[in-house]
Amino acid sequence: MTRNELLQQIQTKRSYLCVGLDTDINKIPAHLRNHPDAIFEFNKAIIDATRDLCVSYKINTAFYEAYGVRGWQALEKTVHYIGNEHFKIADAKRGDIGNTSDQYAKAFFENLPFDAVTVAPYMGSDSVQPFLKYEGKWAIVLGLTSNKGAADFELQSCGDELLYEKVLKTVSQWGTPENLMFVVGATQSDSFINIRKLIPDHFLLVPGVGAQGGSLQEISEKAMNASCGLLVNVSRDIIYAGSEENFAVAARNKAINYQKEMHKYLK
Ligand SMILES: O=C(O)c1cc(=O)[nH]c(=O)n1[C@@H]1O[C@H](COP(=O)(O)O)[C@@H](O)[C@H]1O
């Protein structure tokens, strides 16, 4: 999906919501748990209930890889079920020597129809470049993450700047705002304004709203740019909003609340 197509979706739906499909078999409603295709059935219900309210879905591969072949099959079925209207993110946090990253890019962009893959920048340019070679596909590089471990490296000084600042400045030279986004945790509100100064045009994928306590209002007020430039991910707070048979209705109601709030902030 191109940047213009994504922006169009955001304006049409008045939403920059990305629903995170972090599907954990132990957290899905009891009546689905023994279904032979439980993960996919759960995802299908969540997707049907939220399609019109979000512009993106993020599939965190860990939750599928954990179940081996069956988990991966559920991931494949899910990404195909989402279809072409939504921006589909494989949250796989890949990145390796060039010829290995080539294979990761092939897995998600050729073999599977994802629009974007999350990538760790630690191994440098040749580990990220393979994800930038595909027309209409994106690398979403970890910038300043939402977890407390962000303090261990990302927020440490590196010369006269912080390491995450160096990452944003350097990596932004490797691609363009048409094929490169950055992950910025919603819990890092003290840094939003600084981040926008460093990368005014790039889309930010923002996880950490909901279960991790980040504020949708703060990220929207401080980091939205003229064309929006935000995809705000919510996983647990939406998909586990209900634990009974009507879980999809509960998920929809949560997503409606997020979409309404986004509508207010969108320019
Ligand atoms: O890359 C990510 O998506 C990510 C980066 C980050 O800094 N923090 C973070 O929580 N995530 C992911 O975003 C999702 C957040 O889930 P919830 O906290 O349940 O909304 C999970 O899939 C995390 O793996």
From TrEMBL:
It catalyses: orotidine 5'-phosphate + H(+) = UMP + CO2. Residues 16-251 form the Orotidine 5'-phosphate decarboxylase domain. The keyword Lyase applies. CDD domains: OMP_decarboxylase_like. One of its GO terms (molecular function) is orotidine-5'-phosphate decarboxylase activity. Pathway: Pyrimidine metabolism; UMP biosynthesis via de novo pathway; UMP from orotate: step 2/2. Keywords: Decarboxylase, Lyase, Pyrimidine biosynthesis. InterPro entries: Aldolase_TIM, OMPdecase_type-2, OMPdeCOase_dom, RibuloseP-bd_barrel. Pfam families: OMPdecase. The keyword Lyase applies. Its EC number is 4.1.1.23. Gene3D superfamilies: Aldolase class I (3.20.20.70). It is an enzyme of class 4 (lyase). NCBIfam families: pyrF_sub2. Belongs to the OMP decarboxylase family. Type 2 subfamily. This is Orotidine-5'-phosphate decarboxylase. It comes from Niabella digestorum. The lineage of its organism: Bacteria, Pseudomonadati, Bacteroidota, Chitinophagia, Chitinophagales.
